[in-house]
Amino acid sequence: MSYRAVVIDGRKIIKRVVLIFALGISFMFLSLMLKNGQGLKIKAPEKILNSEIPVMSSENKIGEAFNKVFGFFLSFDKADMKTALFKEMPVAYAVAQGYLMNNTVEAGEETVPKGEEKPIKAISSGATPVMINNQTGFSVSPEAMLGESLSLNLKGDGPKVLIIHTHTTESYTPEGADTYNDSSTDRSLSDAENMIAVGRVMKNELEKAGIEVIHDTELHDYPSYNGSYAHALKAINSYLEKYPSIQVVLDVHRDAIVYDDGTKAKLITEIEGKDAAQVMIVCGTNEGGLEHPNWRENLKFSVKMQNAVNGDYPGLMRNINLRTERFNGHTTKASIILEMGTSGNTIEEAKYSAELLGKSIGKFFNSI
Hints:
Layout: H1 10-35, H2 45-52, H3 61-74, H4 82-88, H5 90-97, E1 117-123, E2 132-134, H6 142-146, E3 161-164, E4 179-181, H7 195-208, E5 213-215, H8 228-242, E6 248-255, E7 264-271, E8 274-277, E9 279-283, H9 295-312, E10 320-322, E11 334-342, H10 347-367
Parallel strand pairs: 1-7, 2-10, 3-5, 3-6, 6-11, 9-10
Antiparallel strand pairs: 1-4, 7-8, 9-11
């Protein structure tokens, strides 16, 4: 005879009671509106809870404290009631957020439907001398910028560089793979597989060069990918307030290139007998309408830095990408995005690039 264990989860019981209570209030409130001839005016669940249970309003300190307790015990956000469903159905949450690696849920045995296997193609797009892929309406000259001076001072005490990852969970292709599944997301919560691992290598190399670095390892794109730049901007401003000596902000990402036939590109170059993922600098501007008065300083910094890296490791760098979006580049006069390879590269190729880039820009920073 077999037996099934019955586990009583107090947190789930409380959660369901609160949900039932909230739904009851919602229907009661709806009935009252219809009865009084007010018409059908649907409120968000959060507003219903706040209006019917005033202590849950976050507009005061008592409400903030109550909400922290509410979120801790019930494990969902009352401002986003679908999180209650996701907590009851982990697979639905994982699929909705796109954090499945190799179609597998790390904490369980469930799998999502498999897609098709597509090829990965190695290509090289090295740029020597410095060239700019200008996607804006602005006129720029890398040759002229090379002759201009930078308004930076990296001498003195205190950290000078902040490494951050707006899209922290971006990850790479497993070692040795020449195909990928087109239903995979190329994201990981593991800091051994995502951008944190790449940033860690770069930080170590800069510190070897005597550059003091702050490395932010917060997950700015998890649990919500939307709003990740706003989330990262809040962190950047916090660091700049705490460490006013910071003048360089390196937002370290990885690119993704997929052709019309589904082939995924890995950008590769051989340096000193070893494969390295090629690197692209992305600079934002104010053409999109957001304030960014120093974007030309950022671009000048990028041109000079890339020129230095080209001298040390020809073929490592791709064309600089100048964009209409701001990308938080307004925070300092040397705030840029670094795309470390693509999703077709491996983590080891990206880490090797971070090592080479860290060595080269460490020398460049010391020369400013």
